[in-house]
Amino acid sequence: MPMQATTPGPNADKRSWRTWLRAQHDPHPQDTSLLLADSLKRDLSALPPSRIALFCALPDEPDLTSLIGLSPHRWYLPRVDGQEMHFHEVHHLDDLRIGAFGIREPHPDLAPGDPTDLDLILCPGLGFGRDGSRLGRGRGYYDRLLHLAPSAQRVGATFPCRIVDHLPTEPHDIPMHRLLEIR
139 among the known binding-site residues? Predict the structure, then answer.
């Protein structure tokens, strides 16, 4: 799909932004994913043992699963069950299977974690604003989860080509504290 030449205007709605963001592609997604994972690894080395929510990437999202098992942290990944999303502690990639939307997710027999116990949530998104705004895919899974974990640090994770100054938000949208960036 060809890249649109101009970004949507300041009054554009979420639908227009989703269309534009879907057209933005990282030219080297595997390399960029590794660089983002390395940047996050450096950040995590300064933290005490933490409970971290991670995600398994869709084809147009950065893959950060190489961090699963990184000590001394505990890793939680989402599993979709109908309209709800639950996080389960995962120790290695063998704990995952293909689930909803063709995304790898924890086996359903793994015990779910409590979102209020999470210290850090890495949030996927179609795009992010530098102001902390996040635009998901429109089903609200992460917005509902973030309301349940108000004390967790929220970090948006996407490819650099999908970061803009600001995205439209609604009252139920939860902003990110910061964005994961390559350093």
Answer: yes
Q: For 15-25, how does the pLDDT look when each residue is reduced to its tens digit (9 = 90+)? A: 999 999 999 99
**104-160: per-residue pLDDT in tens?**
999 989 988 999 999 999 999 999 999 999 999 988 899 888 999 999 999 999 999
User: Going from the N-terminus, what domains does the chain have, and what CATH number goes with each?
Assistant: 50-179 (3.40.50.10420)
141 is annotated as contributing to ligand binding:
yes
Percent of the chain with pLDDT over 70: 97
Distance from C-alpha of 92 to C-alpha of 23, rounded to nearest angstrom: 33
Give the bridge partners for 77, in sequence order. 88
137 is in an annotated binding site: yes
- DSSP code of 34? H
DSSP result, 95-146:
GEEE-GGG-EEE-TTSPBPPGGG-SEEEEE-SEEETTS-EE--SS-HHHHHH
Strands 84-90 and 74-81: antiparallel
How far apart CA 37 and CA 180 sit, in angstroms, is 9
- What pLDDT digit, counting tens, does each position of 33-52 carry? 999 999 999 999 999 999 99
140 is in an annotated binding site: yes
What's the rounded Cα separation, in Å, for the pair 33 and 36? 5
136 is in an annotated binding site: yes
